[in-house]
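Q: Please design a sequence for this.
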């Protein structure tokens, strides 16, 4: 991959490097860049023109103080108790912004599902498999990329779980 391909795509340099390391250079032309930041799943879905559930949120939690990444569809919320049970942890909390950046190398609103600064455990909610394609952040709040969910979860090293909050 050339530097210009990464620059043209608008992907975060660390994420562009991860794509190269994973042999995914062909993804660069498919990365979409927005003029305005899309920090939430709702904003991203509106900018892309897709269903909210087709957004793949990359959320960092702290399980007994250890960072864990949860991949969740954009229309759902994570049930922290189900995450705790899936991990066998005593306590699970939402990670603070500093821990997210320290763990992933990215700011909240732009965390991609892979290509992080450190290796973390990854849980992927089964709801992502309901779609042929999902959209995830490419390292910045201005960029997203499409990928089939099975491939995305595999590249993230994710374990399939059911951690979606059930609505009554």
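A: Design:
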């Amino acid at each position: 991959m050339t530097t210009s391909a990464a620059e043209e795509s608008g992907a975060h340099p660390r994420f562009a490097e991860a794509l190269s390391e994973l042999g995914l250079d062909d993804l660069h032309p498919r990365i979409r860049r927005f003029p305005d930041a899309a920090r939430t799943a709702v904003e991203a879905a509106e900018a892309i023109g897709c269903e909210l559930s087709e957004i793949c949120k990359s959320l960092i939690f702290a399980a007994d103080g250890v960072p864990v990444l949860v991949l969740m569809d954009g229309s759902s919320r994570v049930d922290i108790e189900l995450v705790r049970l899936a991990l066998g942890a005593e306590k699970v909390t939402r990670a603070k912004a500093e821990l997210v950046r320290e763990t992933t190398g990215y700011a909240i609103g732009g965390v991609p599902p892979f290509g992080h600064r450190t290796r973390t455990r990854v849980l992927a909610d089964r709801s992502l498999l309901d779609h042929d394609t999902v959209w995830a952040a490419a390292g910045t709040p201005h960029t997203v990329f499409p990928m089939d969910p099975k491939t995305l979860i595999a590249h993230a090293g994710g374990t399939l779980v059911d951690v979606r909050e059930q609505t009554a």
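Q: Thanks. Anything notable?
A: The longest strand covers residues 55-63. Helices lie at 3-9, 13-21, 41-48, 80-87, 97-104, 149-156.
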